[in-house]
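U., I forgot to send this yesterday:
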Amino acid sequence: MIMSRNSSPLGRMLTVIDCPNSFLRFLILDCPTESTLDFYMEEFMRLNVVAVVRCCQPTYSANRLIERNIEVIDLPFKDGGVPPPLVVREWLQLVEKNRLLAETSREEDPDITPPTIAVHCVAGLGRAPALVAIALIEMGMKPLDTIEYIRGKRRGAFNKPQIAYLDSYKRTLKTKSSASNYSLRFSLGRMFKLGSANKASPSPTPTPPTAGTLSQQT
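Result:
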């Protein structure tokens, strides 16, 4: 989802990124300033933004957001570069905290507006999308699928070094939001549980498995 307001300075664009495996979502944007912050604040409130991550040097006071109960986190790193490990670690801590809160909120009120983490750098095409991509990979998406997914919503996102970094990124979180691994663990766990139950049950005439049976279980 890409939104633009003709009344906003320079027709600024905001991109909502839904998480396929989570109730949490992200908002990628360019850098607000003191003179344009009111426009962004309007969208932040409408989209239930709970946190704003700044990947560049501050260009506006965080107090106005904090007054609206919006958390502001500064995670700056080099323009056009990839996030260092410390930035990734702090970013994932924020994502995981809000992901768990989002799931709890949905259980209590299924009609609630999904919470949103807003992320911006200067143009919203490199550093901010890179952090969002890392979060989606941690939630189970494959790296190249993640890049294509975000680029489909925000044209021009990522440069070559960032694509190479994301393509080789290895997940560090092991959560239920990691859909592919979670479903695999569930299937294996179910299989072994059933196997254990069968071993525990007495059988009057045990029959060794045939090659055909083994191939069906594999």
